[in-house]
Every structure is written in structure tokens, then in C-alpha cells.
Fold this protein.
Amino acid sequence: MKRFSITLLTIVLFVILSISAAAADKPMIGLSFSDFTLERWVREAEEMTKLAESAGAEVIVQEANHDPKIQNDQIENMVLQGADVILIVAEDGAAAATAVDSAAEAGVKCIAYDRLIKSPNNAVYISFDNVEVGRAQARGVLEVKDSGKFALLGGSPTDNNAVLVRQGQMEVLQPYIDSGQIEIVADQWVPNWDTAEALKIMENMLTATNNEIDAVVASNDSTALGAIEALRAQGLAGKVPISAQDATAAGCNAVAKGDLTVTVYKDIRKLVPLSIDIAIKLAKDESVEGLQDFSLAELTGEDLEGTVSCRFLEVIGATQDNLYEVIVKSGYQSYDDVYKGVPEEDRPPKI
């Protein structure tokens, strides 16, 4: 009986130790989102969670409701909970640097997801080629209107992506401005990339210019959709070319209807799995291939020291001409969502 008790105790201890070892090998990944207002963030949080859990990770998801302080507190809490890696969609790229620096001191690796965090302590920054996003937006508008009075709607002033997008826009627009073909008659940034804010800003721009705006270079779908409503109220929707990015269902539908000229397609189905793959590798202290170092000064246009390891994915401008091929056939958005409300004769065949 005594020998049986000892044997049983040994087995129990072995099982406990095995479970503890397995738990220790299970990485914990934090997902810190600036907000769930934008359609894409909800979609990406869900996909990240599924992929991370299927890879054997434990996942913590938090959303900061556009509050930089709350986001920093949430990141700090994830560190205290034992996160190995934290993916961060920063509300404010400068403010989030404090949380990233503190996390790095605690040995926790942070991935700046899609939006740059202004710290050399980012383990990795992954995004799309945001400068090319801006170029594609400007090119799309210029293909329709290459002279006249232009308005610029920038993205959120706290999001470095907005700066990179503007850089790309101006690379394309500047020669036309210098030659006098284009005059910039209005230029404003839109807090939080917010549709309602963009609507108000566009209304003010139209009032200030007596509706004399020939084209709008807007920086994403949510800002463009707000601007389109202001244009519609003046009978200008579909007449004034306007750009965007994200290829949301609403944005693609606006392209199909002719209200939006171009939305830049960024395939998050590639960015999401890449982010989780990198997170798992970082959690296991494995090397990550395909990264390239960029200086913070180069990425921000500011006098910042240090470098960040980066990976940028390609983008495509989606217009009425290639909308079905690029967006629908790829399965990114459904045929019914893209062509909702579009007359049958103006739709491509549903194959």
C-alpha cells in the first residue's frame, strides 16, 4: 500500500510539472487597439485572436476608445498580466512610446501594428507602404481631374500614417502645384479619421470657397465618406473626384456608385497572419526574416534618434475599372456589398 501511495504521488507530481511546463511554453499575446470605431480594427482583432489561439497562444484584447492614456494603462496592465508580446494599434504614436519603452524594460516585446510608435524600442513595425498609399490616391484623382482647385483632407494628426500618406500625396501633386495647374485652396487634418468630423470640415471648406473645389484628396474611406455627404448636399457628389483608402465595404460601394474615385486596397488578410507569425516567433525568441531597418527620422520626418525593424506590404488603387477584379474576385468584399444599390445594368456579371 505504501509503495502504491508513493507511485501515485510520483505520477501526480509528474502531471503537475508537465502541465506547468506546458503553461510556461504557451505564449501570451496582448492586442491593444486604439478603437473599434473603424470597421477594419474589429475585423482584424477577431482574426488575430483566432490565429493566435490556433497557434497555441493565450490572447488578451483591449480597446482604448481613442484615449492615449487609457491605452498606455492597458498596455501596462498586459505587461503585469505576463504578456510576452503586445501588438499595438496606437491611438497616438508619440504617447504610446512611453508604454513601449516601459514594456521593453520589463522584457516584453512590442509590435507597432500598421501605425508607427515613435520609439526605437519597437521590436518590429509592420504596415503597408503608406507613402505609396498617398501616391495612389493622388494619381487616382489626377486621372480624372489634373487641374483646378484642390482640397486636402489629411488623416488623424496623432497617427504617423497620416504623415506618410501626405508625403506620398505631395510627391505626386507638387509638380502640378509648382506649374500652376493645381491650386490647394483648403487643407485640414481630420481627428481620429472620423467621418462626422470630415463631414463638418468639408462643409466648412465648401462654404469658404463658395463650392469652388474641383477635387478632394482625402486620406481614407471614413474621411472620404464624410466629405462625400457634404458634397452631396451641394449637388457635387460624383462630380468632384475624391480619394480614399482601406477598401471597406462602404468605401467600395461608393466607388461602384461613382461617388468615390479610388480607394487604396490594403489586404489585411496578409498583414494579420504576418503579425501573428512574428508575434509567436518573438515570444519564442526566434529570428524574424524579411525585416529592414529604417530610421525614426526617416519614418516621421522628425529629429528622432534610433531605428526600427520594419516590413511594408504592397497596396493597389481600386477604381470602378478594376473594382470587381481586385476586390470582389479576391474575396476581400462580397459582390452584394460592393454593388448594393447599383443598377443592374451598371454591374459586372456575378460569376
About this structure: Confidence is low (pLDDT under 50) at residues 1-6, 8-24.
